[in-house]
Amino acid sequence: MTDPLRLVIFDVDGTLVDSQGAIVAATTAAFQALGLEVPERNKMLSIVGLSLDHAIARLAPHQAVQTQARLVNGYKEAFHAYRLAKGAAAESPLYPGARELIAQLAESPDILLGIATGKSQRGLTALLEAHDLERVFVTKQNADFHPSKPNPSMITTAMAEAGVGPAQTIMIGDTSFDMEMAHAAKVPGIGVSWGYHGVSELHLADRIVDRFGELPDALDMIWKVPT
Hints:
alpha/beta
């Protein structure tokens, strides 16, 4: 009897890659271009994971909708320019241990890998190609086709594409938005401590890990796989 297929969904920014340099640079450029006060760095990083329009609305809540739209466009232009100047791989490097963990999971015949990210389709494609990971993930959900996290749409669509249910799915992410999304989709969530939200904000997580090497055991514990 073969084991049932299981789906591991990863957030991207703050979970697989450290993109804070590009995020801070693009946000700063967008606000400066309009002569607006630049948000504090911690504030910028606190909204990572949300779709860009939602993120900008949180960073500039008192600005007119038209101004927020200009900030969104300015951010996109600045981020794209930063990526072209630095290269996608250098702009958002993989965290230590990420590639090895992804390769380990991908070798398991009963595990499928997916992505649920606030990135755009263009940004996600460029990033995966730069890191030679475009063929690893069987389902790739992004902000262009879904409501912002923590709406569960990305997870429910990923499960449908992979042909698995909530009991066979786990979401891995670094923010409260990821854990809230998992909770809304009724799937377990694993929080990672190296990202952009503090561990105290990951209170909905079923487990929290401090390095990629801890993830296989965390997955097994949730799925109760015998050792």
